[in-house]
UniProtKB/TrEMBL annotation:
Coiled coil: none
Species of the source: Gomphillus americanus
Record's protein name: Helicase C-terminal domain-containing protein
Region spans: Disordered: 358-394, 525-547
Gene3D superfamilies: P-loop containing nucleotide triphosphate hydrolases
């Protein structure tokens, strides 16, 4: 049986799509936070079961909205469109909607989704790469027997992918929980048949697929949305990887930065750690974990800003952006904000990077002006609580991760929004000592073992980055207030355009013409683009957020089999 290969590819929105994605993510974000807070309050009050069910359904609906906005901003908005506002094809036909108009609508649809659905371009690129459709330049060769398995979390996203495939005359089927056993068997048999016209199969996670093996004619798998845990995902993506498979199965996982994908990936790792810890305690497994830890040191050394630490600069960079986690006691703004938030706990000061000692997390011990205890070392108590909190044997880089989590959870809700998750990742990454040579004894430290197991999990799924996502929220730095207002205005104009077109279809003799509607829509698009271009470039204190500016280049890069992933640049971690 040939081995299967898993790789994770990191993608980025271009600037305008990143802002639109952030705009659409706000509603499910707010709904999620509200439902979680409501859930905690009702648990304390021992609420009725039906009330708890309502809250849980709100949490599930918000999570679903986050997944849909990652798949497509258009799909997320379509999800909340009332069904009574739509017309079926038969109804449109009775209104005089001809074949040529359906063709024009299809072209407009493809144009729209390519602008608003980042992963659409990737999907079409993969279809062209494996010979299912003709590439725009006509350079590829159509393979009549090539098939593609796509996995998704939300059925609506699966049906959207089916719509995209059929828009380019490619037969696609979605296997979901609403199908009968006979329908599943028939769909599986058609997909297994190398001569059938069914070329793309979308598999939804969590459905019963006992005995469904897809190894006869499929060896390419595309993960559009990762599973809620890796066991669920592996159950779907490994359907073609069976003993009778004659070809190497290529599994490609798509990962969109600053999206719900990051949180799902972090939760996957959290759930996989206990299982990995039980199965990888042999000497050979520890040696492999140690190898991963030592290999990761090269990534830390490659970070330009890490050179400041190696040269002896003891202060963490980006201190300004992390002022809430590591506040300056002399700053009245921070002191007043914490006081207003009702925080009465012990003040937590700055942290310094000094790789000569392991007692670096205690802000008091880092204060050069702090006086020494009158008692000598020989008189000091062995049960000093500070020593228990900051043991000298603990690796600073790994205990720093715990400290980041503790400080973040300590912040009031209104100040948590001021902390950048990307900078948290960067802090944690820089806290690891790149000069440390790990040995097989080091995994006895729980924090080092935890990091090693996360690297092991990343190695399994082809994930090159070390990421820590504390909350499900994305970064909204790309969405200034002025631009949010411009996007809201654009969406209002889109709704008005749809209503105008619907009125025209219902009443072909209306005074408004389709050309006038299109002209008005183009004018609104020009105004929005002007506002978009005038928005300032997003910078995070000298660390520019790199984006893909040319969508054509994006697809060309994706089509290239020798992909150079952007996540090889540690400065973005």
């Amino acid at each position: 049986m040939p081995a299967h290969i898993i790789k994770t590819i990191h993608l980025e929105h271009n600037p305008s799509k990143a802002r639109e994605h952030a705009f659409d993510r706000r509603a499910p974000d707010v709904e999620y936070v509200t439902a979680i807070a409501e859930s905690v309050n009702h648990q304390r009050k021992a609420a009725a079961r039906d009330e708890n069910d309502r809250i849980l359904s709100s949490i599930a609906r918000a999570s679903r909205g986050m997944c849909l906005s990652t798949t497509s901003t258009s799909l997320e908005r379509l999800e909340y469109t009332p069904q009574e506002d739509t017309l079926t094809i038969n109804e449109l036909g009775r209104k005089g909607f001809g074949v040529h108009q359906f063709i024009k609508v299809t072209i407009d649809f493809l144009s729209a989704v390519l602008r608003t659905f980042h992963l659409t371009r990737v999907l079409y690129a993969w279809l062209a790469k494996y010979g299912l459709i003709q590439s725009p330049d006509g350079a590829n060769t159509i393979n009549e027997h090539s098939k593609l398995l796509v996995t998704e979390e939300v059925p609506a996203s699966g049906f959207f992918i089916e719509l995209l495939c059929e828009a380019v005359c490619l037969e696609c089927a979605v296997m979901h929980s609403g199908m009968t056993e006979e329908e599943r068997v028939d769909t599986t048999a058609r997909f297994q048949d190398p001569n059938s016209s069914l070329r793309v199969l979308v598999l939804i996670y969590g459905i019963s697929l006992q005995g469904v093996n897809l190894d006869r004619s499929c060896w390419q798998v595309l993960v559009m949305t990762s599973g809620r845990n890796f066991a669920t995902e592996a159950q779907a993506v490994c359907r073609p990887a069976r003993v009778s498979q004659s070809r190497t199965v290529n599994i490609t996982r798509l990962f969109l930065r600053n999206s719900h994908d990051e949180y799902r990936e972090a939760k996957q790792a959290d759930k996989a750690i206990p299982d990995l810890a039980m199965k990888h305690l042999s000497l050979d497994s520890k040696r492999f974990i140690v190898k991963l830890l030592n290999d990761a040191n090269a990534n830390i050394r490659a970070v330009p800003r890490a050179q400041e630490l190696l040269k002896g600069n003891s202060h963490i960079p980006f201190q300004k952006s992390m002022r809430w986690l590591f506040p300056d006691p002399s700053c009245s703004e921070i002191e007043n904000a914490l006081t207003a938030a009702g925080k009465k706990r012990k003040f937590m000061g700055q942290v310094q990077f000094t790789r000569r000692t392991s007692r670096r997390l205690d802000p008091v011990r880092n204060d050069e002006n702090e006086g020494e205890d009158d008692k000598g070392d020989s008189q000091a108590s062995g049960s000093d609580t500070d020593d228990l909190a900051y043991p000298s044997s603990e690796s600073f880089g790994h205990s720093f991760t715990k400290e980041l989590r503790r400080r973040y959870l300590w912040l009031p809700e209104e100040l948590k929004n001021e902390v950048s998750q990307d900078v948290i990742n960067f802090y944690r990454f820089l806290s690891y000592d790149p000069d440390k040579v790990y040995t097989v004894d080091d995994p006895q430290d729980n924090e080092i073992l935890n990091r090693g197991l996360r690297l092991l999990f990343g190695n399994r799924i082809g994930q090159a980055q070390e990421r820590l996502r504390v909350t499900p929220h994305i970064s909204y730095e790309a969405l200034p207030k002025s631009l949010a207002d411009a996007i809201a205005s654009k969406l209002a104009q889109e709704k008005e355009t749809i209503e105008d077109v619907a009125s025209l279809l219902l009443n072909p003799r209306a005074s408004t013409s389709l050309a006038a509607i299109r002209r008005k829509n183009d004018e609104n698009e020009d105004l929005f683009n002007q506002s978009n271009n005038e928005s300032e470039s997003i910078h995070d204190e000298g660390m520019e957020l790199e984006t893909n500016r040319d969508e054509a280049v994006e697809v060309e890069i994706i089509l290239d089999q020798s992909i150079k992933l952007e996540n090889d640049h540690p400065q973005e971690i």
